[in-house]
């Protein structure tokens, strides 16, 4: 038994070393999946500084509240699970914080994933619903539900323990189908989405937001109404369009790695598997600054060019008074 324990410990140590080494070689780890950090947005250079548009879109990426599946370490993906009492309590706490609830910082747009755990968290944080599920009138917030913000689809693992691989989960589904009298061809396997597929759909969402902000900004300039109603405009600082987006851990990790991976501190907290730690109800803020050159090529669908920069990473200061003692569920 002692030898077996020692062997397991050695294997775990080797795996952790492999993950750390992989990250240093341009490989990212998202929910136990190692993949090359390809198709990422490039860094800003000196030439870009001269071409940046006079406004930026600031994405406030917030993870949903704790769910029952989180507590039991169950893979959710595009499946769903109710918020726990603690998850609701932390959402209510966030709703009381002017740092995030939109009362002091006026959001230009507010979005959330179409999965229930994200939708309910967003409604509570933005003051559209109380912790008991009762609607609150008069907030003036228009929350847009967008499926492009839903979690990455995790295939056969959805509904099973996080420790189980996709291959093992698929075999378990086959055994369950056989036990119920169904053939292997009839097993129900959820969609498995690649990191790059997830990035493409969420980048499409970002591009659409940047396009809308650009159209609004330049139309107000043409009308002589260059006033910032959404954030402070100091000196030559760009006008900021603040966008609230409540989503999911793996999709937020994907956005961080693809957009600002080079800015992540080397000592930032990770999960035991090596994934970036994104606690429930944490907020990551990324600035997206369009390039002026994109205005001259509006008919080109591929001309959505912008430069991102990291403003804040997995911040939980709006939850400072929380009494939560459990782990920051992944």
Automatic annotation (TrEMBL):
Q: Name one GO molecular function term.
A: hydrolase activity
**Signal sequence residues:** 1-18
> Which keywords appear in this protein's UniProt record, sorted alphabetically?
Hydrolase, Signal
Q: Where does substrate bind?
A: 63-70, 117
Instruction: Write down a Pfam family by its short name.
Output: His_Phos_1
> Gene3D superfamilies, from UniProt?
Phosphoglycerate mutase-like
InterPro entries, from UniProt?
A: His_Pase_superF_clade-1, His_PPase_superfam, PG/BPGM_mutase_AS, Phosphoglycerate_Mutase
Q: Please give the SMART domains that the UniProt record associates with this protein.
A: PGAM
Q: What is this protein called?
A: Uncharacterized protein
The record lists the organism as Discostella pseudostelligera
């Amino acid at each position: 038994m002692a030898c077996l324990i020692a062997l397991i410990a050695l294997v775990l140590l080797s795996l952790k070393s492999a993950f750390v080494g992989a990250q240093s070689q341009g490989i990212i780890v998202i929910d136990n999946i190692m993949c090359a950090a390809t198709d990422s947005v490039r860094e800003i250079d000196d030439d870009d500084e001269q071409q940046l548009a006079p406004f930026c879109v600031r994405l406030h990426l917030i993870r949903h509240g704790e769910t029952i599946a989180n507590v039991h370490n169950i893979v959710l993906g595009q499946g769903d699970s109710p918020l726990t009492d603690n998850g609701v309590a932390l959402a209510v706490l966030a709703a009381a914080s002017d740092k995030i609830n939109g009362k002091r910082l006026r959001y230009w747009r507010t979005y959330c994933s179409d999965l229930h755990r994200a939708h309910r968290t967003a409604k509570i944080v933005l003051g559209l619903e109380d912790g008991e599920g009762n609607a609150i009138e008069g907030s003036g917030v228009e929350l847009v539900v967008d499926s492009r913000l839903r979690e990455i689809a995790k295939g056969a693992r959805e509904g099973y323990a996080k420790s189980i691989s996709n291959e093992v989960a698929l075999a378990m589904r086959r055994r369950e189908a056989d036990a119920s009298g169904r053939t292997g061809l009839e097993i129900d396997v959820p969609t498995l989405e690649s990191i790059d597929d997830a990035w493409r759909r969420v980048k499409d969402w970002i591009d659409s937001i940047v396009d809308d902000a650009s159209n609004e900004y330049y139309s107000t300039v043409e009308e002589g109404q260059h006033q910032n109603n959404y954030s402070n405009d100091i000196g030559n600082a760009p006008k900021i369009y603040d966008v609230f987006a409540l989503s999911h851990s793996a999709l937020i990790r994907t956005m961080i790695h693809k957009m600002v991976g080079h800015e992540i501190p080397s000592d930032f907290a990770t999960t035991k598997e090596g994934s970036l730690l994104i606690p429930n109800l944490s907020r990551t803020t990324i600035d997206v600054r369009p390039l002026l050159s994109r205005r001259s090529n509006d008919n080109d669908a591929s001309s959505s060019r912008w430069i991102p920069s990291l403003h804040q990473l997995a911040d939980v200061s709006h939850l400072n008074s929380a009494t939560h003692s459990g782990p920051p569920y992944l």
